[in-house]
Amino acid sequence: MEQGIERHALIVGIEPSRREEYLRLHAAVWPQVEATLSACNVTNYTIFVRGEVLVAYYEYTGTDHDADMARIGEDPVTCEWWTHTDPCQVPLFADQPAGERWAPLAEVWHLP
Question: Can you give the pTM of this predicted structure?
Fold first, then answer.
């Protein structure tokens, strides 16, 4: 891993009836949501879609990932954004903690 960069990848399903809604929302992510992510040391955030599966990837450049993720979760605009996006998502794995949709993926290999 490069000095100061953590790579994170997550996976979630899309509720089939809300797929187009989710894609429409992400065609114009709210500027304050993007600003909050950037202020919390999240860079290079990308979401990929295939069928009804989403894979998210981002790089974290801060020093306290948990604290920065908590700060994102405290932002009222981001919380409002999630009221629109969360209903579009469904967990893919039975062993996920209650209330969690996105499941982390383990990094296996990286070409620097």
Answer: 0.92
